[in-house]
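User: I'm new to structure prediction. If I give you an amino acid sequence, what do you actually give back? Let's try with this one:
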Amino acid sequence: MTEMVLSCAAGWAVFLALHLALNGRWWPWLAVSLLPPVAFALVPLALLAAALVTGGRLAAALAAGCLLVAWPQNGINLRALVRRPETPGGLRLVSWNTQHWNQGGDPDRFHAFLRSLDAEVYVLQEYLNGFEGGKVWDIDDEERLRASFPDHHLAVGNNSVTLSRFPPAGPPVPVGACSLRVDLRTGDGVLSTYNVHIPVQLTVMNPLRPAFLRDMRRRAAARDREYAALVEDLRDNPHPVLVTGDFNTSAAIGDIRRMPRSLRDAIGACRSLCPASWNARARLRLWRIDWAFTGGGALVGSYRFRAAEGLSDHLVQELTVTV
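Assistant: Good question. You get back a string of structure tokens that encode the predicted 3D arrangement of the chain. For your 323 residues, that looks like this:
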């Protein structure tokens, strides 16, 4: 039994070494990195418990080392254990992937839900319809949006929608092919909001078909371009920034390391120990692929995920931001 536990611990250590070396650097590893992030904590913890029961010291050391080395990738938010008072006030913002803008659903219910969120700024992704034959097509819901939110300024671009009670400081700026930057005048300053939607890693199809690998390689290249465009724009931006949206990237996927170190992950203000935003329709949610970052003096006062009431497979990000 001790030898079996040691073999399992050694196997996990080899897998983890490959993951750390290839994750975010070799495109085929994107499929492997889709593991639920919490697995990088649960597997070594299970191995450690088995090693302690069987008396395998080497296995226990391997398991403990794997747990510590991969801790940043497990998605566990230990800061939730420290109760901090929420910062009062601040700009109320929601960020949400609408899953193809309520395609096939009740538009009245969809718009009523948006209004019920009562945000000063809405950052919404997937302002489009599809897929039929792998294609998407644009839609036009601007008239309904202006009627639903008469006190908000509307910006549309790159299949994204930003609604704000604060006036824009200039025209919306497309970032790459899938994200949208909108600069808002908040008081005496400007806050740059980035409405981000990074392409998904793969299409669900037979993984043994050559088309599967071709599609994943194409998507990996598209993800590279989107992250590069986002990081380049952020580095040239002198304003406080809020970067939020659907990154299609979990804590276990190396792509998230591309975000500038000057940005702060909003998860520090979240009170959930294992925050997850997908799949909203499932009872067990294992992936946080929706993120929020601030920088340049912008700070998050509160941050939480809210149910989407069956309207999307993504939960709603709710946060308050001060500049």
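You can read the tokens as a compact description of the fold. Here is one thing that stands out. The mean pLDDT is 94.
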